[in-house]
Amino acid sequence: MFEADLLIRGGTVIDPERGVEEPAEVAIRDGRIVTRPAGEPCRAARTVDASGCVVTPGLIDHHAHVFAGGTALSIAPDLLLPMGVTTVVDAGSTGIDAFEAFRRAIVETARIRVLCQLNLASAGQITEAHPECLDPAHFKRERIAALAARHPGLIRGLKIRAGAEVLGRFGLAAVKAALEVAEAVNLPLTVHTTNPPCDMGELAAMLRPGDVFCHCFHGKGNAMVGADGVVKPGVREARARGVLFDTADARGNHTYKVIAAALTSGFRPDIISTDITNGSLFGNMVFGLPVVLSRYLQHGLTLTEVIRAATATPARALGLAGRIGTLAPGAEADVAIFALRDREILLTNLAGEEMTVTRHLVPQMTVMGGEIVYRQVDFL
Ligand SMILES: [Zn+2]
Q1: Where are the domains positioned within the chain?
Q2: 48 alpha carbon to ligand 1 midpoint, in Å?
Q3: What is the β-pairing status of strands 26-29 and 32-34?
């Protein structure tokens, strides 16, 4: 007799990491995904009927701000559990100086898995009143290296905002210095790219394989598509070298116009994430990751593509492929269940663009480490 703690049956499993898209059950034992041998009867302590639903690995929100109480913009990370999100990456809210507070107050107390991209600026992104200081002379290389070495499971990358208004007089020299630090500590660098001080192709050309070019579809200043509506050669070359393109949409770090032009050019995002903050949580824009994924369905991506962009690909970017972002045997038992509902909802972004989304991923249940951490009240 095959024993399971939790058995999810009746749903359609979409697990892009394994190329699976079929009606299947998901079995969980001791906090891990397990496989029932064909034909063997099963005794499960708890069974969930996911008939008519899509069952995916727990989602990874690869760009969010969750240092609640530590920065002006952040939300409490567990607010993302009802979104089907089981892993959230804080994108540079903290630098080295507040890292210990972030770790103790957020990472250690949250139910959701919180990972960190450490800001090169020692003070992180504490306030919206003024940009962080990106003077390379103030990058504390030894302390960043020491912290990264002490918390390798938690610090999965470094972060810099390469907007002209943040870089100021340091310009691309700060990005170059950030890349040197990232290289020295052997971590990927996530680069915020809105309003860059140079051509987007030039900025993309600086990045290394595995580095993350975030807010890739922004329309502030120099965009990834040229006046001819085509993705710039430097951006294409960066992708070919293995640079990852993350939407990190927020309310205003994307435009539908750039997204449409990029998709028409055949350029699809590697990672879809929210860049969610207290100004966008539960709002028309962004609301949460499922709403952003549903919008990309409307933009023309397939269901498998959007799930891949929020599971398998970010897991690989984080160096955690096979452990999270998949329902492979042995993986963490993080699972999300969604209903697909048809309804017209108008989404208006900060650029004032309007888009009607007609099909929605509506979270029904979130499972973390084999434990049900969210359940929609009528999901029985
Ligand atoms: Zn952000």
Answers
A1: 2-56+330-340+359-375, 59-317
A2: 36
A3: antiparallel
- Residue 107 tokens read as 């990472």
Q: Class for domain 59-317, per CATH?
A: alpha beta
User: What's the 63 CA to ligand 1 centre distance in angstroms?
Assistant: 6
Is the whole model's pTM more than 0.85, yes or no? yes
Per-residue CA distances from 189 to 154, 157, 179, 183, 340 (Å): 15, 6, 7, 9, 35
* CB proximity list for 230: less than 8 A, separation 6 or greater: 261, 265
Per CATH, domain 2-56+330-340+359-375 is 2.30.40.10: yes
Q: How far is the CA of 191 from the centre of ligand 1 (A)?
A: 10
Quote the ligand 1 centre to 161 CA distance (angstroms).
9
Structure tokens at 366: 């979130």
Interatomic CA distance for residues 268 and 309, integer angstroms: 10
Q: Provide the Cα torsion 154, 321, 294, 82; round to 10°.
A: -50
Q: Is the separation of the CB atoms in 209 and 243 below 8 Å?
A: yes
Centre of ligand 1 to C-alpha 379, Å, is: 33
User: CA 157, CA 83: separation in Å to the nearest integer?
Assistant: 24
Q: How far is the CA of 157 from the centre of ligand 1 (A)?
A: 14
What pLDDT, in 10s, does the model give residues 216-275?
A: 999 999 999 999 999 999 999 999 999 999 999 999 999 999 999 999 999 999 999 999
C-alpha of residue 158 to centroid of ligand 1, in Å: 13
